[in-house]
Write a structure and sequence with these properties.
The protein is an alpha+beta fold and about 100 residues long. About 25% of the residues lie in helices and about 30% in strands. The protein contains two helices and four strands, in the order E-H-E-E-H-E. It has a four-stranded antiparallel sheet, with helices on one face. Belongs to the UPF0250 family.
């Protein structure tokens, strides 16, 4: 599995980095963002650019208790560490997105 630094780069020399085999079905991407207008569509479009086979009906969302934040969980077929790094970088470039796991 790709470990991604805060800048969206791959941490290539991580000591205890878990390894996954690609392609990896049902790879979970979790995105935490401010609850802004159109954020769901913007995040979904970004994910579909990197993982067009993503099943959008299998996603889950959860709002924070005060309604300021929303988290989304998506399942994709992860093809490579490069794909995951690019996806992380592009998701973090969305202004309202605060965290990508």
């Amino acid at each position: 599995m790709a470990l991604i630094t805060k800048n969206g780069d791959q941490a290539e020399n991580a000591v205890d980095a878990p390894k996954i085999e690609f392609p990896c079905e049902n790879y979970v991407i979790k995105v935490v963002s401010l609850d802004a207008d159109g954020i769901h569509t913007e995040i979904t479009n970004c994910l579909l650019c990197h993982a067009p086979e993503m099943n959008t009906t299998a996603e889950k969302s959860n709002r924070s208790s005060k309604g300021r934040f929303v988290s989304f969980s998506f399942r994709i077929v992860a093809q490579s560490e490069g794909q995951l790094a690019a996806l992380h970088r592009d998701l973090m470039a969305i202004e309202s997105v605060k965290m990508v796991l």
